[in-house]
Specification:
Length: 156
């Protein structure tokens, strides 16, 4: 019994190296997240807006017309020291090219994430039906991780 007590105490102590919501991270097969994250921004989404825009620059020939789909998420920061104010999701229609990496701008308190257009319906479904969290982690080795995830959901 004495050997079990220290083991149980060790299990109940918080792991300072593990970020909040670490259970939602995928396996670290490439060992990129071995160290504790240097930054964590965790936001619980409370509201969102969707902007579908188009622009035409009339001073260029031929006249290019571009369209964009952007989602703005707002909510409450959950991680200690989090300063995040909003998350911009940009959706790219060109699924074959690589997406820009996630970027957090401290001055505007804005996290910008880029997703392929194919993910739009999934994200809208999550926002309409679940509690959604946005997580952003940076590591000393330059690794960056960002995700949108739900909490644990019971099947019906």
């Amino acid at each position: 019994m004495r050997a079990i007590v220290p083991f149980l105490l060790a299990l109940s102590l918080p792991l300072s190296a593990a970020p909040l919501h670490s259970q939602f991270l995928p396996p670290d097969d490439l060992a990129l997240r071995q160290e504790a994250p240097t930054t964590q921004q965790l936001l619980q989404v409370t509201d969102y807006t969707v902007v579908v825009g188009t622009q035409r620059q009339s001073d260029q020939q031929p006249i290019p017309i571009t369209a964009s789909l952007q989602m703005r998420l707002k909510g409450k920061p959950l991680s200690k020291g989090a300063s995040i104010g909003q998350v911009l999701l940009n959706f790219d229609g060109e699924g074959g090219k690589s997406l820009k990496k996630p970027v957090y701008d401290e001055k505007s308190r804005t996290l910008t994430l880029n997703y392929p257009m194919a993910d739009y319906r999934v994200i809208m479904d999550l926002l309409r039906n679940e509690t959604v969290y946005v997580q952003f982690l940076t590591y000393a080795n330059g690794h960056v991780w960002a995700d949108l995830h739900t909490g644990t959901v019971r099947t019906r």
